[in-house]
Inverse folding.
């Protein structure tokens, strides 16, 4: 009898997908997990800060109410991004995430339908990932899992101004 087990990347990405189901955003579902030595040390999803009302409870998205285009003015969102929450939750628990890896999965919600997104961290999340000491980021895309070496992001910003990457981040999470 042959038993098929998922590859580690597939296994962790499936867990990130399940974590995304806890999101309280009305527009996207994003889940992130941090793994170290093939063990999950932290998880995060898009949601309002602890003990505050989220968009689901309020029945509206503040950014949509203010007609803010996707990918702009993140400071006016009620939620904290999944990547940020995974890093914050690790810190709250005293988990060492240095040299760990992050897996990020996301779907876009539009007119009642959910579709897989070509996920990519926003500019703020990318800076937090670099500063957290994570070594790799695995992103779910329509073409499969894409792996990024965080050290390469740092090297790119050492060679050129980080503003050269703004076209990638201007849209925030890719649509």
């Amino acid at each position: 009898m042959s038993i098929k087990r998922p590859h580690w990347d597939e296994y962790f990405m499936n867990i990130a997908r399940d974590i995304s189901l806890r999101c309280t955003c009305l527009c996207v579902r994003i889940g992130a997990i941090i793994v170290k030595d093939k063990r999950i040390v932290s998880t995060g999803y898009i949601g309002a800060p602890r003990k505050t009302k989220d968009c689901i409870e309020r029945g509206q998205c503040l950014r949509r109410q203010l007609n803010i285009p996707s990918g702009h003015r993140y400071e006016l969102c009620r939620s904290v991004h999944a990547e940020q929450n995974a890093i914050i939750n690790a810190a709250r628990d005293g988990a060492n995430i240095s040299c760990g890896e992050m897996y990020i999965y996301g779907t876009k919600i539009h007119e009642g339908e959910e579709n897989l997104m070509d996920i990519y961290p926003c500019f703020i999340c990318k800076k937090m990932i670099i500063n957290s000491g994570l070594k790799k980021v695995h992103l779910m895309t329509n073409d499969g899992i894409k792996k990024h070496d965080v050290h390469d992001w740092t090297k790119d910003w050492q060679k050129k101004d980080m503003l050269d990457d703004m076209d990638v981040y201007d849209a925030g999470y890719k649509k």
Notes: The radius of gyration is 16 Å. The chain has seven helices and six strands. The helical segments are 8-20, 55-58, 62-65, 82-93, 123-132, 150-159, 166-170.
